Amino acid sequence: MSYEIERNTSPNGEPSLADMTESAINILENDKGFLLMVEGAKIDHALHDNNARRSLEDLLAFEEAVERALKKTSQLDTLIIVTADHSHTLTINGYPARGNPILGIAENQTDFGLPYTTLMFTNGVGYNYTNNGTHILWRNLTNVDTQALDFRQQAAIYRENGDETHGGEDVAAYAIGPWAHLITGAHEQPYVAHVAKYAACLGDYAEMCQSSMRKTSCGIEVSSANTGGIHAFFITTMFLTSYILQL
Question: Binding positions for Zn(2+) (predicted)?
């Protein structure tokens, strides 16, 4: 796929992530349920390049895909989980003024008077430092358009283009629909897959649908007659993975 901001949006062009998500749901919709995973991988690709602009544009495309999935399904019989497989070294720093563009300059460093951006990376190709004989200075961003499409955010440690690393912090998980209450607290990543399998009565949880009644997080009594399949929808991005399970 192309980056969202560079995608051919003409009638004969490339469909958006939201368009493909809607089409996939239309194709898979049936009485027995389905499991669908949709990945917004270009968010990750842009971050590996220290390119926050493209990453954020694709994050908005991802958000539209989630919104489209919510409109195409019902919270009464569809579990949607949004989470992630990893983070990146992107960080928000400095004390930018309220209303300052997220892609803009945070402030000027007091000792050298050099500006630095609100968004920066711990490592990556955006590393650009020089030694003036007494101090290590970073690239002077005065009069540089930091919101330009190809601008690479500053990085503390050099790594080759496309080789910025993943981060190590916990990632968020969000859920809505039946059994969404199981997505809470801190868990290892495999837990999310177990929630999906449990909701869909798959694998080790196949017999769960044979029980006389199961009460969902929506308070609906679900009998084995209408739990022949739960529809599952998964979306992954640099931060997020989303699962839809439909009863």
Answer: 44, 48, 85-86, 166
Q: What per-residue string of b and e applies to 190-215 under the rule 16 or more CB within 10 Å gives b?
A: eebeebbbbbbbbeeeeebbeeeebe
Q: Is 39 annotated among the ligand-binding residues?
A: yes
User: Do 101 and 52 form a contact (C-beta atoms < 8 A)?
Assistant: no
> Is position 194 annotated in a ligand binding site?
no
- Whole-Å CA distances, 124 to 128, 146, 211: 10, 16, 53
Whether 64 has a binding-site annotation, put simply, is: no
Predicted TM-score (pTM) of the model is 0.85
- Cβ atoms 231, 246 nearer than 8 A: yes
Question: Distance (Å, rounded) from C-alpha 143 to C-alpha 225?
Answer: 66
Residue 160 among known ligand-binding residues: no
pLDDT in tens, the chain (247 residues): 999 999 999 999 999 999 999 999 999 988 888 888 888 889 999 999 999 999 999 999 999 999 999 999 988 888 999 988 899 999 999 999 999 999 999 999 888 889 999 999 999 999 999 888 888 889 999 999 999 999 999 999 999 989 999 999 999 899 998 889 999 999 998 999 899 888 888 888 888 776 654 555 444 444 333 333 455 555 444 444 455 555 5
CB atoms within 10 A of CB 126: 25
CA distances from 56 to 48, 62, 179, 183, 186 (A): 13, 10, 30, 25, 26
Does the annotation place 86 within a ligand binding site? yes
